[in-house]
Amino acid sequence: MDSLRGAHGAPILEKVFLPERQKRLVEAVLRGVDDVDVLASVLGVRREDIMRDLEELKAKGLLEVERAEEVLYVLTKEGERCLAEGLPEEKVLGILKARGELPKTDLLALGARSGVSEGEVELGLMQLAAAKAVSFKSGVVSLVDASRAQELVERNRSALRLVAQGSQPDSDVANALRRRGLIEARKRARLRAGPTARLLELWDKGLVLEARVVTELTPELVVSGAWREAVFKPFDLSAEPPRVLLGRKHPYLEFLDWLREILVEMGFEEMKGPHVELELWNFDALFQAQDHPAREIHDTYFVKGGIQGSFHDEELLRRIAAVHESGGGTGSRGWGYKWNPSRALRLILRTQTTAVSARTLYQRGPGEYMCFSLDRVFRPENLDAKHSMEFYQLEGIIVGQHVTFRNLLGFFDEMARRLGLGRVKVKPAYFPFTEPSVEGFIKHEKLGWIEVFPGGMFRPEMLSALGVKDVNVAAWGIGIDRIAMAVLGIDDIRLLFTQDLEFIRRTPRPIPLSLLR
């Protein structure tokens, strides 16, 4: 309660009623206990249990709470091992005490027999030499000051024990142990509570009293008459209510669902395929030569153990072999080598969803249809802001007798318009299974122009091998992760898969507001 003022402005102090735990908290602070962790221990509760009490006492003007960061040292795994098994300098000292001096080669051999590695012997010698406890001459190691060596060992062991117990060693020793990787520094927030002048004055006058403080008048309080001795806590209507954190889908998954809706609205059907794929569908059916660099281990994940899959359509294998070796009657000369069917049956993690398009064309054949696949592909990339070893690819085919390259460019423009990506710049490109081929670029606010729309017209060699005749096929395989970065306004591909709840909550919905109006 706030103090009132008398006729001459002098404060009139009124009684302050506190719940039992807050009263005990105040008493502990007045006894000189200021560390919040210690206060919680005194009260027999967890630290987080008294945080609200501290805030209420602070709001009443009874306590001051200060927050400060401090450095706390903890043992690393190596530090724990050295404390349990002995420091390297301790192990080397034990050998030298027994022998006095000996060639370094003998010291290494004795260490190996007693389970001390060569690295530990070298490190132990380095520590003892720095303390001027050993000397080296003509390959012989001599213990010249056993007491100084023992002092070094005891100092370092004592420091490790202090850290293990939660205490802090001298800064010089701590820095030395930290450089050796035996301890590491961690920052910890420390809270300290202290009495205000108002609390001291109220306490001196006996005006801080314990009472049952209630926030709700219940039937039990009325019937029992306990309300007469209770103090009702006033409501603070200006206080902000707690924020309700509702669940939501990850913004990247929302974006992918939105893409599916767009493509279905445009008349596409979704097609599916396996993540573990035959090279046959991922490469050979796409007229990609068996000696192509992309089919090596630095660009493709292979199933361990050399396991092969199986495929029983001999006619398809014959057609694929023909186009690879001589063009298969398409007017092409093929790749001019002997095609190996056993290589085509190796199992890999698919590197492109074009494998799904090849399967679909093989199953459905010629006709008039449009299909898409939105799923994951895998490549041995180095993870950075623009690349990931696992990412989503949006693959699609437009099949029809009158489909042309202009239909593909029109599709890119329409997708960019629906996604709010702005103008698309295109340039000629090369892919083994399309001709003509193109790459489409969009401009990212932070990353500049990024390539997201590769595509082209499937080559006759590929269509002939799959048994698809008298139709053209426009195909595209979009790097959808990069488009998502542009739509979501982020510049790091790793954020698309983050589990950071704060990022997920604050990221706006991917659908541009201009398209919702």
Structure description:
This protein is an alpha+beta fold. 39% of the residues lie in helices and 23% in strands. The chain contains 21 helices and 21 strands. A hairpin with a 5-residue loop joins β1 and β2 (11-12). α5 packs across α7 (118-130), α5 packs antiparallel against α8 (146-164) and α14 runs antiparallel to α18. The longest helix has 19 residues, at 146-164. It is flat and about 105 Å long.
Report the uncertain regions: 513-517
How many distinct folded domains?
Answer: 3
Sheet of most strands: 7 strands, mixed
CATH topology of the largest domain: BirA Bifunctional Protein, domain 2
What's the CATH H-level superfamily name of the largest domain?
Bira Bifunctional Protein, Domain 2
Which CATH class of the largest domain is shown?
Alpha Beta
What is the strand arrangement across the widest sheet? 12-16-17-21-20-19-18
Strand portion: 15-25%
Structural class: alpha+beta
Could you tell me the mean pLDDT? Answer: 85
Helix content: 25-40%
